[in-house]
Amino acid sequence: MLTIFVPKEKLPEMIGRIMDGARVFAPVKEGDGYRFRLLDRPDKADLTYQNTRLSPKELIHPPAEAMFSYSLKKGDPKEGILEEIPKALGKRVVWGIRPCDAKAFQLVDINFITDQYVDPWWQKRRQATVLVGLGCGKPCSTCFCTSVGTGPFDRSALDVLMTELAEGYVLEAVTEAGEALLAEAPEGTPASASVLAEAQAVAEQAEKSLPRLFVPEPLKEKPMTELFQAAFWDEVQFACINCGTCTFLCPTCWCFDIQDEVHQQEGVRLRLWDSCMFPLFTLHGSGHNPRNQKLQRVRQRFMHKFKYYVDKYGNGPACVGCGRCVQYCPVNIDIRRVAGMMTASCVCPT
Protein backbone atom coordinates (compact mmCIF):
# COMPACT_ATOMS: atom_id res chain seq x y z
CA MET A 1 0.00 0.00 0.00
CA LEU A 2 1.07 3.56 -0.76
CA THR A 3 2.76 5.63 1.97
CA ILE A 4 3.56 9.31 1.47
CA PHE A 5 4.99 12.21 3.43
CA VAL A 6 3.21 15.58 3.40
CA PRO A 7 4.89 18.68 4.90
CA LYS A 8 2.74 20.49 7.47
CA GLU A 9 2.49 23.63 5.37
CA LYS A 10 1.02 21.61 2.47
CA LEU A 11 -1.63 19.76 4.46
CA PRO A 12 -4.30 22.53 4.17
CA GLU A 13 -3.70 22.48 0.41
CA MET A 14 -4.32 18.74 0.36
CA ILE A 15 -7.47 19.02 2.45
CA GLY A 16 -8.75 21.85 0.28
CA ARG A 17 -8.27 19.79 -2.87
CA ILE A 18 -10.20 16.90 -1.34
CA MET A 19 -12.97 19.33 -0.37
CA ASP A 20 -13.53 20.01 -4.08
CA GLY A 21 -14.89 16.47 -4.52
CA ALA A 22 -16.21 15.46 -1.11
CA ARG A 23 -17.59 16.81 2.13
CA VAL A 24 -14.73 16.87 4.63
CA PHE A 25 -15.24 16.69 8.40
CA ALA A 26 -12.39 17.42 10.81
CA PRO A 27 -11.81 18.45 14.45
CA VAL A 28 -12.55 22.14 14.94
CA LYS A 29 -11.88 24.19 18.06
CA GLU A 30 -15.11 25.19 19.83
CA GLY A 31 -14.83 26.98 23.17
CA ASP A 32 -12.62 24.91 25.46
CA GLY A 33 -13.03 21.73 23.41
CA TYR A 34 -13.13 20.24 19.94
CA ARG A 35 -15.82 18.75 17.75
CA PHE A 36 -15.90 17.21 14.27
CA ARG A 37 -17.50 19.69 11.90
CA LEU A 38 -18.05 20.05 8.17
CA LEU A 39 -15.21 22.23 6.90
CA ASP A 40 -15.88 25.34 4.85
CA ARG A 41 -12.16 26.21 4.88
CA PRO A 42 -9.28 23.74 5.08
CA ASP A 43 -7.38 25.79 7.64
CA LYS A 44 -10.17 25.26 10.19
CA ALA A 45 -9.03 21.66 10.70
CA ASP A 46 -7.13 21.64 14.01
CA LEU A 47 -5.00 18.53 14.36
CA THR A 48 -3.39 19.71 17.61
CA TYR A 49 -6.32 18.27 19.56
CA GLN A 50 -6.04 15.21 21.82
CA ASN A 51 -9.64 14.11 21.54
CA THR A 52 -13.06 15.58 20.91
CA ARG A 53 -15.61 15.80 23.70
CA LEU A 54 -18.35 14.21 21.61
CA SER A 55 -17.23 11.29 19.50
CA PRO A 56 -17.52 11.46 15.70
CA LYS A 57 -20.21 8.78 15.98
CA GLU A 58 -22.62 11.65 15.43
CA LEU A 59 -21.44 11.89 11.81
CA ILE A 60 -22.90 8.45 11.06
CA HIS A 61 -25.60 8.26 13.76
CA PRO A 62 -26.80 11.86 14.44
CA PRO A 63 -28.08 12.78 17.93
CA ALA A 64 -31.38 13.87 16.35
CA GLU A 65 -32.42 12.87 12.86
CA ALA A 66 -35.64 13.62 11.00
CA MET A 67 -36.51 10.33 9.29
CA PHE A 68 -39.97 10.85 7.80
CA SER A 69 -42.59 13.54 7.32
CA TYR A 70 -46.35 13.12 6.98
CA SER A 71 -49.55 15.10 6.68
CA LEU A 72 -52.64 14.91 8.88
CA LYS A 73 -54.65 17.24 6.67
CA LYS A 74 -57.99 15.77 5.63
CA GLY A 75 -58.22 15.20 1.90
CA ASP A 76 -54.46 15.54 1.36
CA PRO A 77 -53.31 12.77 -1.05
CA LYS A 78 -50.33 12.25 1.31
CA GLU A 79 -52.47 12.07 4.46
CA GLY A 80 -51.01 9.51 6.86
CA ILE A 81 -48.25 8.48 4.43
CA LEU A 82 -44.66 8.50 5.65
CA GLU A 83 -42.27 10.18 3.22
CA GLU A 84 -38.54 9.80 3.73
CA ILE A 85 -36.82 13.11 4.36
CA PRO A 86 -33.80 13.55 2.00
CA LYS A 87 -30.40 13.23 3.62
CA ALA A 88 -26.86 14.14 2.58
CA LEU A 89 -25.43 10.67 1.96
CA GLY A 90 -22.80 11.50 -0.66
CA LYS A 91 -19.04 11.02 -0.57
CA ARG A 92 -17.24 12.39 2.45
CA VAL A 93 -13.97 12.18 4.31
CA VAL A 94 -13.49 12.24 8.08
CA TRP A 95 -10.04 13.76 8.52
CA GLY A 96 -8.04 13.27 11.72
CA ILE A 97 -10.29 10.73 13.44
CA ARG A 98 -8.59 8.86 16.28
CA PRO A 99 -8.09 5.10 15.77
CA CYS A 100 -10.27 4.32 18.79
CA ASP A 101 -13.21 6.27 17.35
CA ALA A 102 -12.80 4.56 13.99
CA LYS A 103 -12.75 1.19 15.75
CA ALA A 104 -16.02 2.12 17.42
CA PHE A 105 -17.72 2.29 14.00
CA GLN A 106 -16.78 -1.34 13.43
CA LEU A 107 -18.24 -2.38 16.77
CA VAL A 108 -21.49 -0.51 16.12
CA ASP A 109 -21.78 -1.95 12.58
CA ILE A 110 -22.86 -5.19 14.28
CA ASN A 111 -26.02 -3.50 15.54
CA PHE A 112 -27.02 -1.55 12.42
CA ILE A 113 -25.98 -4.01 9.70
CA THR A 114 -27.20 -7.55 10.41
CA ASP A 115 -28.20 -10.55 8.31
CA GLN A 116 -31.83 -9.84 9.16
CA TYR A 117 -32.02 -6.04 9.32
CA VAL A 118 -30.01 -3.20 7.82
CA ASP A 119 -30.24 0.45 8.84
CA PRO A 120 -30.04 2.09 5.39
CA TRP A 121 -28.76 5.46 6.61
CA TRP A 122 -26.00 4.01 8.78
CA GLN A 123 -24.96 1.68 5.96
CA LYS A 124 -24.98 4.36 3.24
CA ARG A 125 -23.03 6.83 5.36
CA ARG A 126 -20.48 4.19 6.25
CA GLN A 127 -20.03 3.15 2.61
CA ALA A 128 -19.64 6.77 1.50
CA THR A 129 -17.10 7.72 4.17
CA VAL A 130 -13.31 7.53 3.99
CA LEU A 131 -11.64 7.55 7.41
CA VAL A 132 -8.28 9.31 7.61
CA GLY A 133 -7.02 8.52 11.10
CA LEU A 134 -4.57 10.51 13.20
CA GLY A 135 -2.46 8.28 15.43
CA CYS A 136 -2.23 9.32 19.08
CA GLY A 137 1.38 10.32 19.62
CA LYS A 138 0.55 11.59 23.11
CA PRO A 139 -2.49 9.72 24.50
CA CYS A 140 -4.56 11.29 27.28
CA SER A 141 -4.01 10.06 30.84
CA THR A 142 -7.56 8.68 30.73
CA CYS A 143 -7.01 6.59 27.58
CA PHE A 144 -6.92 2.80 27.90
CA CYS A 145 -7.30 1.58 24.32
CA THR A 146 -4.61 -1.09 24.72
CA SER A 147 -6.67 -2.71 27.48
CA VAL A 148 -9.63 -3.36 25.16
CA GLY A 149 -7.91 -4.71 22.07
CA THR A 150 -7.08 -1.59 20.10
CA GLY A 151 -4.24 0.94 20.29
CA PRO A 152 -3.07 4.52 19.64
CA PHE A 153 -1.95 3.62 16.10
CA ASP A 154 -4.42 0.81 15.35
CA ARG A 155 -5.06 0.88 11.59
CA SER A 156 -7.65 -1.93 11.48
CA ALA A 157 -10.68 0.36 11.10
CA LEU A 158 -9.06 3.11 9.02
CA ASP A 159 -8.60 3.82 5.33
CA VAL A 160 -5.52 5.95 5.95
CA LEU A 161 -3.31 6.16 9.05
CA MET A 162 -1.60 9.50 9.62
CA THR A 163 1.42 9.93 11.91
CA GLU A 164 2.55 13.38 12.94
CA LEU A 165 6.27 14.13 12.85
CA ALA A 166 8.06 17.40 13.56
CA GLU A 167 8.04 18.59 9.94
CA GLY A 168 4.97 16.89 8.54
CA TYR A 169 2.75 13.83 8.37
CA VAL A 170 3.28 10.27 7.19
CA LEU A 171 0.09 9.04 5.49
CA GLU A 172 -0.19 5.28 5.05
CA ALA A 173 -2.97 3.80 2.92
CA VAL A 174 -4.69 0.86 4.62
CA THR A 175 -7.52 0.13 2.18
CA GLU A 176 -8.15 0.60 -1.53
CA ALA A 177 -10.22 3.70 -0.75
CA GLY A 178 -7.28 5.10 1.17
CA GLU A 179 -4.87 4.26 -1.63
CA ALA A 180 -7.09 6.08 -4.13
CA LEU A 181 -7.14 9.14 -1.88
CA LEU A 182 -3.34 9.25 -1.57
CA ALA A 183 -2.67 8.40 -5.21
CA GLU A 184 -4.19 11.75 -6.15
CA ALA A 185 -2.07 13.75 -3.72
CA PRO A 186 0.55 15.89 -5.48
CA GLU A 187 1.26 17.56 -2.12
CA GLY A 188 3.05 14.41 -0.92
CA THR A 189 6.21 12.52 -1.80
CA PRO A 190 7.00 8.81 -1.23
CA ALA A 191 8.00 8.31 2.40
CA SER A 192 11.72 7.60 2.83
CA ALA A 193 13.09 4.80 5.01
CA SER A 194 14.26 7.31 7.63
CA VAL A 195 10.83 8.95 7.78
CA LEU A 196 9.14 5.55 8.14
CA ALA A 197 11.53 4.62 10.94
CA GLU A 198 10.75 7.89 12.74
CA ALA A 199 7.01 7.25 12.41
CA GLN A 200 7.44 3.71 13.74
CA ALA A 201 9.32 5.05 16.77
CA VAL A 202 6.48 7.50 17.53
CA ALA A 203 3.93 4.69 17.41
CA GLU A 204 6.00 2.38 19.61
CA GLN A 205 6.53 5.08 22.22
CA ALA A 206 2.82 5.86 22.33
CA GLU A 207 2.02 2.16 22.76
CA LYS A 208 4.49 1.86 25.65
CA SER A 209 2.87 4.81 27.42
CA LEU A 210 -0.40 2.86 27.72
CA PRO A 211 0.08 -0.24 29.88
CA ARG A 212 -2.82 -2.70 30.04
CA LEU A 213 -4.87 -1.78 33.11
CA PHE A 214 -7.08 -4.86 33.04
CA VAL A 215 -7.43 -8.03 31.00
CA PRO A 216 -10.94 -8.47 29.52
CA GLU A 217 -10.40 -11.96 28.05
CA PRO A 218 -11.55 -13.85 31.21
CA LEU A 219 -15.02 -12.33 30.81
CA LYS A 220 -15.73 -14.78 28.00
CA GLU A 221 -15.60 -17.66 30.47
CA LYS A 222 -17.01 -15.94 33.54
CA PRO A 223 -20.55 -17.18 34.41
CA MET A 224 -23.25 -14.60 33.72
CA THR A 225 -24.94 -15.16 37.10
CA GLU A 226 -21.68 -14.67 38.97
CA LEU A 227 -21.20 -11.22 37.45
CA PHE A 228 -24.87 -10.26 37.57
CA GLN A 229 -25.13 -10.99 41.29
CA ALA A 230 -21.72 -9.62 42.29
CA ALA A 231 -21.66 -7.60 45.50
CA PHE A 232 -19.55 -4.78 44.01
CA TRP A 233 -22.47 -3.35 41.98
CA ASP A 234 -23.82 -1.65 45.08
CA GLU A 235 -20.53 0.19 45.51
CA VAL A 236 -20.32 1.10 41.81
CA GLN A 237 -23.84 2.55 41.64
CA PHE A 238 -23.65 4.53 44.88
CA ALA A 239 -22.37 7.80 43.39
CA CYS A 240 -24.15 7.59 40.01
CA ILE A 241 -26.77 10.27 39.34
CA ASN A 242 -28.09 8.69 36.11
CA CYS A 243 -27.26 11.81 34.10
CA GLY A 244 -26.45 9.82 30.95
CA THR A 245 -23.22 11.74 30.25
CA CYS A 246 -21.24 8.52 29.85
CA THR A 247 -23.60 7.10 27.23
CA PHE A 248 -23.96 10.31 25.23
CA LEU A 249 -20.18 10.71 25.02
CA CYS A 250 -19.52 7.03 24.31
CA PRO A 251 -18.60 6.19 20.68
CA THR A 252 -20.06 2.66 20.95
CA CYS A 253 -23.45 3.41 22.54
CA TRP A 254 -26.18 3.03 19.92
CA CYS A 255 -29.49 3.27 21.80
CA PHE A 256 -32.17 5.52 20.32
CA ASP A 257 -35.82 6.43 20.72
CA ILE A 258 -38.33 7.26 17.99
CA GLN A 259 -40.76 10.11 18.56
CA ASP A 260 -43.32 12.00 16.50
CA GLU A 261 -43.55 15.78 16.60
CA VAL A 262 -46.69 17.38 15.17
CA HIS A 263 -47.30 21.05 14.48
CA GLN A 264 -50.84 21.83 13.33
CA GLN A 265 -51.39 19.33 10.52
CA GLU A 266 -47.79 18.45 9.68
CA GLY A 267 -45.76 15.77 11.43
CA VAL A 268 -42.16 14.60 11.56
CA ARG A 269 -40.88 11.25 12.84
CA LEU A 270 -37.54 11.64 14.61
CA ARG A 271 -34.81 9.29 15.76
CA LEU A 272 -33.15 10.59 18.93
CA TRP A 273 -30.27 9.30 21.03
CA ASP A 274 -31.44 7.61 24.20
CA SER A 275 -29.65 6.18 27.23
CA CYS A 276 -29.99 3.02 29.30
CA MET A 277 -29.12 5.21 32.29
CA PHE A 278 -32.47 7.04 32.14
CA PRO A 279 -35.33 5.68 34.30
CA LEU A 280 -37.81 5.98 31.41
CA PHE A 281 -35.64 3.96 29.03
CA THR A 282 -37.22 0.62 29.97
CA LEU A 283 -40.64 1.85 31.07
CA HIS A 284 -43.34 -0.31 29.48
CA GLY A 285 -46.68 0.96 28.26
CA SER A 286 -48.26 -1.10 31.05
CA GLY A 287 -46.40 0.96 33.63
CA HIS A 288 -44.01 -1.87 34.52
CA ASN A 289 -40.31 -0.99 34.53
CA PRO A 290 -37.89 -3.95 34.65
CA ARG A 291 -35.00 -1.63 35.54
CA ASN A 292 -36.61 0.87 37.87
CA GLN A 293 -33.66 0.93 40.28
CA LYS A 294 -30.40 2.83 39.75
CA LEU A 295 -28.29 -0.23 40.52
CA GLN A 296 -30.01 -2.16 37.73
CA ARG A 297 -29.31 0.58 35.20
CA VAL A 298 -25.67 1.03 36.19
CA ARG A 299 -25.12 -2.72 36.07
CA GLN A 300 -26.75 -2.87 32.63
CA ARG A 301 -24.31 -0.33 31.18
CA PHE A 302 -21.18 -2.17 32.28
CA MET A 303 -22.57 -5.65 31.70
CA HIS A 304 -23.49 -4.71 28.13
CA LYS A 305 -20.04 -3.29 27.43
CA PHE A 306 -18.01 -6.12 28.92
CA LYS A 307 -20.23 -9.20 29.09
CA TYR A 308 -23.43 -9.20 27.01
CA TYR A 309 -21.71 -7.87 23.87
CA VAL A 310 -18.77 -10.23 24.38
CA ASP A 311 -21.03 -13.27 24.75
CA LYS A 312 -23.34 -12.37 21.87
CA TYR A 313 -20.81 -11.30 19.23
CA GLY A 314 -17.52 -12.79 20.41
CA ASN A 315 -15.36 -9.92 19.18
CA GLY A 316 -14.18 -8.27 22.37
CA PRO A 317 -15.76 -5.64 24.63
CA ALA A 318 -18.03 -2.90 23.30
CA CYS A 319 -15.52 -0.30 24.44
CA VAL A 320 -12.57 1.28 22.65
CA GLY A 321 -10.86 2.90 25.63
CA CYS A 322 -11.30 6.51 24.52
CA GLY A 323 -11.62 7.61 28.16
CA ARG A 324 -14.38 10.19 27.60
CA CYS A 325 -16.60 8.74 30.31
CA VAL A 326 -13.64 8.83 32.72
CA GLN A 327 -12.91 12.47 31.91
CA TYR A 328 -16.43 13.82 32.08
CA CYS A 329 -18.31 11.72 34.64
CA PRO A 330 -19.48 14.35 37.19
CA VAL A 331 -19.15 11.88 40.08
CA ASN A 332 -15.84 10.28 39.01
CA ILE A 333 -17.02 6.76 38.21
CA ASP A 334 -14.07 5.14 36.42
CA ILE A 335 -14.93 2.47 33.84
CA ARG A 336 -11.36 1.15 34.07
CA ARG A 337 -11.82 0.34 37.73
CA VAL A 338 -15.24 -1.24 37.14
CA ALA A 339 -13.89 -3.38 34.30
CA GLY A 340 -11.08 -4.47 36.57
CA MET A 341 -13.58 -5.47 39.25
CA MET A 342 -15.53 -7.47 36.68
CA THR A 343 -12.44 -9.26 35.41
CA ALA A 344 -10.77 -9.42 38.84
CA SER A 345 -7.57 -8.28 37.14
CA CYS A 346 -7.48 -4.60 37.98
CA VAL A 347 -4.28 -2.57 38.27
CA CYS A 348 -6.21 0.66 37.68
CA PRO A 349 -5.74 4.03 39.40
CA THR A 350 -7.92 4.50 42.47
From TrEMBL:
Molecular-function GO terms, alphabetical: iron-sulfur cluster binding; metal ion binding
Gene3D superfamilies: Alpha-helical ferredoxin
Domain 4Fe-4S ferredoxin-type: 229-261, 306-338
SUPFAM superfamilies in the record: alpha-helical ferredoxin
Keyword tags: Iron, Iron-sulfur, Metal-binding
InterPro entries with a match to the protein in the record: 4Fe4S_Fe-S-bd, 4Fe4S_Fe_S_CS, Helical_ferredxn
Name recorded for this polypeptide: 4Fe-4S ferredoxin
Organism in which the protein naturally occurs: Desulfacinum infernum
